[in-house]
Amino acid sequence: MADAILDALGPVLTRWTMGGSAVRHAPPVWREALESDPKEAELRLLALSGQYLGTLTVSPPAGDLQPRGDIPVLACPPLPEIFRPGARRLLHALREPGARRDLLNFLDRRGWTLHPGDWMPRPGDDVPPVYAPWQDWAATAASAGAEELTADTWGEFGPAARLAALMDLRGHDAAAATALLLLKIAGEPADHRVRLLQTLVLGLSENDRPLLELLASGDRAPRVRALATAFIEGLNGRTSHQDEEDAAKLAAFFAVQTRGLLRRTRVIEPLPPKNIVYRNRRTDLFDTVSFDGFARTLGLEGTELVAIWPWGGDALLDQGFAQMVARSAADPVVAATADALTLAKTIDSDALEMLLPRLTAGQRHVAAERLVRANGATFDMVRAIAGGDGCIDDAIHMPAGMALLGALEAGGDQADELLALGLIASRKAAGQALDQLVVVGLIASDPRLDMLRLNAALENRRPTE
User: Fold this and answer.
1) Which residues of 267-277 are buried (b: 16+ CB within 10 A; e: fewer)?
2) Assessment of whether the complete model's pTM goes beyond 0.85
3) Cα(348)–Cα(290) distance, rounded to whole angstroms?
4) Residues of the chain with pLDDT under 50
5) What is the pLDDT of residue 425?
6) Beta carbons within 8 Å of 149's beta carbon, 6+ residues apart
7) Exposed (0-12), middle (13-18) or buried (19+): which is 224, by Cβ within 10 Å?
8) Where are the beta strands (DSSP E) in 208-329?
9) How many Cβ atoms sit within 10 Å of the Cβ of residue 112?
10) Is 125 within 8 Å of 97 (Cβ atoms)?
11) How many other CB atoms sit within 10 Å of the CB of residue 455?
């Protein structure tokens, strides 16, 4: 009987696909239940077909079913019910992982989490630590059917479980782990490639060189290339003598001079590049020379070099210098560089972003507060530095706020700026911004204001932080 009904539904589905009535093609055993009214009959046929196809013809699962267990309770409570519709709209709008992470950070700083019915992290997602129990739960479920990590079972593991299995394989068979990475790493997203490559720390050897050289020269992500290059240097493919030679070559592009009659001060000046090849060589050296080696060759202390660097003269030089600092300098030098960048007359947000992995939350907050006061800054630039800080006061009255109000009065959309403002502003500042935005013509229910409304209304459960 079940097969007969399933066969009879073929013409029904075909008629619906073509946009016509399918009552005449209904299975005979259902016709008594359809009634004579054509509209009612069509609705009943649709209901019966949907129930049948959705329940009675579901394919049985392959293998044994394993209970997943309850979703773990997090350390912070989920958003109150009244805020969940707005949070869902924001999640739909925040497609880019970095922007979604900013929303998660904002909620975490206020002492809240998303509701599991609205969002769940995947095992490899970059999320605040409060969501770790959910990631472990998801990773356990994702890898329940896979026992050993091989080229054939690679896709059966979730990202977190795959990483754990690869580390275990690396511990007892490093060569097999390297061979597996050589086959599979190219198909992973950039952030996953970085995490997978970091497993080579365990038992790094010459056997890893082919993989490292392939990634160092051909990977499309700068982070992966930089990490592979660092591992190659760890294999003694680069001697201290070579580092000194390259530091001397980079130093030759600059001149350290002393100026002033009474108060003698030292300055560093870049020499004019002779041609594009010369300029490109200088840029390449910033990617490989260590900061200490560069400073030592110039005869300067680390913080002294940062202090006399010609900030603002050449954006490409500033960014190369900042990248070198982020990659190889000590923490005090990184902090001094962040101060130098944020106290300059014109703040280079691109150079500042290169330091972010080395800055503490407090340092990022200070940098963001300085940037938001700078002429020419936008709230989106500040968000790139602060993330979901949610602590910047008086934001709408800053230069970026004045520019935003002017652009809205002129008819601009400014959706990205409004979202960024909602992520970085303090609760009081979000309320001030809403008042000002209504004055320039935005209605209170405008969906572009979702983040600001959430910010202004959401209680801070961590008032002492």
Assistant:
1) ebeeeeeeeee
2) no
3) 22
4) 237-239, 464-465
5) 96
6) 157, 162, 165, 166, 168, 169, 180
7) buried
8) 254-259, 265-270
9) 24
10) yes
11) 26
